[in-house]
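Example record

The entry below shows one chain as it appears in the dataset: sequence first, then structure tokens.
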Amino acid sequence: MAKVTVDGIEVEVPNGATVLQACEAAGKEIPRFCYHERLSVAGNCRMCLVEVEKAPKPVASCAYPVADGMVVKTDSPVVRNARRGVMEFLLINHPLDCPICDQGGECDLQDQAVGYGMDHSRYREAKRSVKDKNIGPLIKTIMTRCIQCTRCVRFSAEVAGTAELGGTNRGENLEIGTYVEKALTSELSGNLIDICPVGALTSRPYAFVSRPWELRKTEGVDVQDATGTNIRIDTRGPEVLRILPRINEDVNEEWMADRGRFSFDGLKRKRLDRPWLRVDGKLRQASWPEAFAAIAGRLKGLRGDRIGAIAGDLVEAESLLALKALMAKLGSENLDCRTDGAAIDVTRPDFYRFNTTIAGIEEADALLIIGSNPRTEAPVINARIRKRWVAGRFRIGRIGPAGLDLTYSHEHLGEGPEAIRALLDGSHPFMEVLKTAKNPMVLLGRGALMRADGLAVLAAAWEVARQANALRDDWHGFNLLHLFGGQVGALALGFLPGAGGQDLGQMLGGGVDALWLLGADGVDPATIAPGTFVIYQGHHGDRIAGRADVILPGAAYTEKDGTWVNTEGRVQRGHLAVYPPGEAREDWRIIRAASEALGATLPFDSLAQLRAAMPLEEGFARRFAADATGPSGDPAAMSGAPFVLPLANYHQADVIARASDVMAQCAATYAAPLAVAAE
């Protein structure tokens, strides 16, 4: 440890720390533009200049290492003059367009110009102008504002793993761009907007929409993938205007995937805002009493075993618990939440969780990916894997379709279960990599379980982890990566067939006379047997709503207080940001009202009462299981069919994204397959 004196305050910092870190440890604010805690040091903006005793001139604190006994001054006349000079140079070519800039009100350049700049400029020459670049439908560029901090360049290369941005020309003619004009291909591109300290990169969908002080900010959870990204929902009146990530070091750090960030316009399109009832083969608008009367008229005469319920992928825990309780009151054990048909063993939580945890990826030293493309299934988790890979000594093997670009190099072991067999019998050398690793990881994609031999694949992946010594008291290396935010909560609550109950295929195939679909937008209406009475409860008029006999308009995840469980089993709460449109209501309230009409009144009247009966505690505790007993399934029963990835279209993978115009533009822009991986 080195002892450093900062403005008379003595602090101890680790050897190798920078002067900037020492200043922050002493509680001193240091202005910066190019420096970012999660990116490599560039040292090119010079705004962080400080005075170091015995140094001949001010030094860039972000790139200058500490030394024992160093004395630093952060607010001396020399420092103030140096910073004013730097700010004057930065503003030489910066346009005076703050009144129309979307970064206005939350701009680092504005804030630091007021705090550290001069009150006048000595520059009278004409400002330079830079042509704007078209880098896709998500990011708007006004490159005349760019101060060449290179944060975007470093983020693209280091975090996103798509080195598409860089500088051309030199000196005053330097421009940041994509060299050849093209759309950015990263699923994390929206984070460039957050890290840009000026208004050079802004959100295209949010352009000229509002000012930050007009917005109401609500904390929430992104449910459009299973990462559980912590988000802030910015609203004005009844409308969501933008969604931004919040910092959570254990989950998403400060990053967010593009689909969750930009598909919010789908929350106001194709919405169901009133009940509908099928009369004489046609859907017509109805009142809530009429809808409940129609449901009661059909369900009251049925035995419990002829009624079924299917839950979708974006449903919060409270509504799942309410519907499960209603089915129990009606005497039905026919429940299922696996609308994709995935074979999952729920007898133990570690059979269906990401047990290493997302933050625990950084402790691993070998990884095997089976039947998954983390880049599209969970872009933020993929960035964490890349972060560990960049750190070095991290071998990665993958079994699945060839030619994927995961943004990091890996070994392609095969396309199907034959490669798993080769690992289990020791004939493939990558098994030795896993066995010699201290903390090996096996990452199984949910898509690998969406097949007839899904349980066998699950058991085989577990056996690979067991043979690699990844199932220990101090390390659990088996991980199942889910696709959406409501999937793990449904499994944890046991929204699955009970004793003698029917599963998804049996219910759809005619095993029930009445089927309650709670946000089950992934169900293909063509698979529902003719004559089945279908109740659809959800927030979008997607394809499955057209098959319904009764439509009950529910609330989207931004329109209710809800509990979601991410892929690692972390329980998180989201809060109501805007009210549902029209006559739509929160889903648990709809189920509670329907229970009265059915004569099976549920024993709760408030969200607090419902949560009191819910066996999920908010928070997260990392759990390890020394029990290496595997899930049900015989590895020998695996077929030879290659694995197929579950998300053919990343940008339109869920019902909200399918209703989004922005995501439709992205789907059209990125219709061409991703570049072939460097393997």
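Notes for this example: The chain is about 25% helix and 15% strand. Residues 2-90 form a domain with the Ubiquitin-like (UB roll) fold (CATH 3.10.20.740).
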